[in-house]
Amino acid sequence: MTEEKKSAYTHTQPTIRTPLGAARGLGSAKEGAHHWWMQRVSAIALVPLSLYWLSYLPHLTSSNYADFLGWIGAPATAIVAILFVIASFYHAALGIQVIIEDYIISEGLKIATLLLNKFTFFALAAACIFSIAYISFTHGHMTP
Questions:
Q1: CATH class of this structure's domain 29-139
Q2: pTM, rounded to two decimals
Q3: Which of 3, 28, 42, 138 has its CA 20 to 30 A from that of 51?
């Protein structure tokens, strides 16, 4: 073996750091398990909520705007709509968080993107919930 090739192989310094020491500070497996469970729970919650919306889709395509406002403003429908918004935006935020954590290497950019992710989904969910509540209180079926 030539001297150049030999120096390329012996260039690294030996370390006495154990694998446990190298892994410390990189995160806890317990946090990932909770995140994994929350994704599954929100996905399971979305199944019946999505089926509810899909079951009403044929009726919504044949109704006019006033009928839709009356339907979405009904208390039961508004509650289901709000539950759907909460579950879907939470599930989406969790999914995007996993993508950000896996593919963004820079720690500063990762933190900024995670904050933007949380704030964006929270703001969108709040806007949807406010809109549903507004329609429910102004156009819903109110009994005297």
A1: mainly alpha
A2: 0.74
A3: 138
